Amino acid sequence: MNLSIDIGNTRVKAAVFEKNTILDVFVFDKKKIISEIKKIIKNYEVSDAIMSSVAKISEKKKAKIQNIVRVHQLSFATRVPFFNLYKTPKTLGVDRIALVSNAVLKYPNKNVLIIDAGTCITFDFVNDKKQYLGGAISPGIEMRFQSMNTFTASLPKVNPKVLDGFIGKNTEESLNSGVVNGVIQEIEGVIHQYKCKYLDLTVVLTGGDTNFLSKQLKSSIFANQNFLLEGLNEILTFNQ
Question: Which of 95, 116, 124, 209 is the catalytic position?
Answer without folding.
Answer: 95
